[in-house]
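User: I'll paste a sequence; please echo it back and then give the predicted structure.

Assistant: Echoing your sequence first, then the prediction.
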Amino acid sequence: MTTTLVTGSHGWVGHHLRRQLVARGHNVVGVGRRQRTVPAGERYLQLNLRDAPAVAAAVDAIRPTVVLHLAATVPQRNGSLTDVVADAVESTYNLCRALRTADVGTPPHLVLAGSAAQYGGVPSAENPISEDTLPRPLNTYGHAKAAAESLALAMAADGRLRVTVARPFNHVGPGESSATLAGALASRIAAVLAGRSDRVQVADLDAVRDFTDVRDVARAYVELAEISQAEDIYNVCSGSGVTVRTVLETLLDLANLDHRVVELIEGRSAIRFQVGSAERLAARTGWKAEIPLRESLRELLTELTDRPAHD
């Protein structure tokens, strides 16, 4: 049985990823900063990935052959610039250094979760974005993820570590928080339905993004973790562009609300158009996005209206 270490194991994507790995027969060990109570049969270790000796000790004890590195701090969750950079770069360095000396009989396989933020401001005429597109990060998160990716690939150059990079585009679906684009809109609509607000504020309705259900994203990570000789960079995306207007109108329709609750506010995204190509991932693994956007938004909105507000 493959022993698979998942960092950020109890985050939004990690929650779905753990389930899929267990269903595929992996012996999953999750790690994260917080203390967790996990179900019977699951393993979890409280670990700060910026603590190099602790990371080395954990890798030595767990001896994973596969690592899915999801842990990160994002600015939308009030992460400071220092935390965003350190949690991307320092944590990745500590993990790679520990894995390079791990006694597991074969070079460990690290699947590193990057971000479409690494591409940044690619002109719309150059979309859909392939993995060969020149990255143009526009913010701290994009630069930090790009730095972590380069660092991991550098530490794998001598063959003592295998690295596969995933660059996911916008996620959507159950468990999403208000720190994301679709999550913010769904949370505002849920607040109107609950009587906590009478307006849904939104800006820049014509910006275009590429949305993939979080469970499809998790499945892509599993596929990449399980194939041999997967070392490369892979976009994880639907390949379809959707305007913010379409996301808003879909959510309003699902909530049986009309545009009278919408309040347009000032604001313009630095990235006007971002759509990816997942042709490389499809060719290598057969993966494709399967869950329709409307279904993802329906489940997200249902979840938000069925639980107390907490974001």
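The domain at 3-171+211-236 is CATH 3.40.50.720 (Rossmann fold). The chain has a mean pLDDT of 93.
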